[in-house]
């Protein structure tokens, strides 16, 4: 149920004088000084930055199959509290989302929960096994209208299969999102390949394992005139390949995770499995290069790779632990810490990397829209001056595997609206 809401004193994109924003019938009805509306619910938003609702191209909601780690309901709650209004649920569920039945289940559950728009990502290959293409056409034509396909967690390593996937995706108006990892170079790998891994006795995960696949796939995308999206970029070398590819006219986009912007390999010295992630935390020089590439636009957007795990899969010895971290409720704050506070992005830049570019890449016409009258009232309100301390037990996810436990982070999401309906406010889900 939508309401008439008057937000007083917001600052669109953090710039200019405070204005009032009127929400009516799911749309922005008015924006300006001293807006008045009889009967509207008035919210004092003085000092809050207004941005288009965030879009996450890379979320693991675990349902169906691993509801002990996350569900569509709990993941949607985490997303709304983190300022997200749309998320893309990866295909590595059980059963795998490699057919119309599973993707429609995920899509319908997302609609039932109703906190964010849940868009299922279809698998590229059957069972994520990299042997033969999944039913891309039937998933695209299903009620879920899948427009992104990925074997995330596994690389589509066979170049012939990748070429065929790119060709089919073009006919479907879709994008292939690649988990760039040459598996023959990462067998048994546990940490970024370098001096620290050697000192800790961990098998190294070389940067070239990512970079070789990105270079190959950019060439394939150019050859097939297809759209390629590169998941969780983690190395300076990958950023350079992307810079070359974009300058050469390749239709490629890329994402970076919050944790690869903030954390580096030094976190591994404690052997705490919460820091184990795929791709691994890299050298500090890579982290700095990723921030610069995001500011430049070589890397298009931030995507969380929100990866909740049940305790038995994470609270164990390093080698046996599953890779992955929570990310939905902390993403905005990490972007503020790594990009806004150092002056690499202003708030309009934050809107670009968290909302506008992800929506463009995914082809979502009603997300990432300008804050103007007549546009959907799909908004995120942020307190730019607030700080908060992360406590995993207080997050909405079932899992608690956050690497930010106990950290005090800047910037806090106060309110999230999806088409005029409040989905999260002041740390609570719902109106």
Describe the protein in words.
The protein has 431 residues and is an alpha/beta fold. The chain folds into two domains: 5-49 and 374-429, Urease, subunit C, domain 1; 53-362, TIM Barrel. The chain has twelve helices and 19 strands. It has helices spanning 72-81, 100-113, 136-141, 159-172, 195-200, 207-224, 236-247, 258-262, 284-296, 311-314, 331-340, 347-362; strands at residues 5-12, 19-24, 27-32, 41-44, 49-52, 54-59, 84-89, 117-120, 148-149, 175-178, 191-192, 204-205, 228-230, 252-256, 301-302, 379-389, 408-418, 421-425, 428-429. Strands 1, 2, 3, 4, 5, 16, 17, 18 and 19 form a nine-stranded mixed β-sheet that branches. Strands 9-10-13-14-15 form a five-stranded parallel β-sheet. Helix 5 (195-200) links the parallel strand 11 and strand 12.
Shape: globular
Total strands: the figure is 19
Relative helix content: 25-40%
Beta-strand share of residues = 15-25%
Quote the average pLDDT.
97
How many separate helices? Answer: 12
Entry summary:
The protein has helices at residues 72-81, 100-113, 136-141, 159-172, 195-200, 207-224, 236-247, 258-262, 284-296, 311-314, 331-340, 347-362, and strands spanning 5-12, 19-24, 27-32, 41-44, 49-52, 54-59, 84-89, 117-120, 148-149, 175-178, 191-192, 204-205, 228-230, 252-256, 301-302, 379-389, 408-418, 421-425, 428-429. With 431 residues, it is α/β, with parallel strands linked by helices. A hairpin with a 2-residue loop joins strand 17 and strand 18 (421-425).
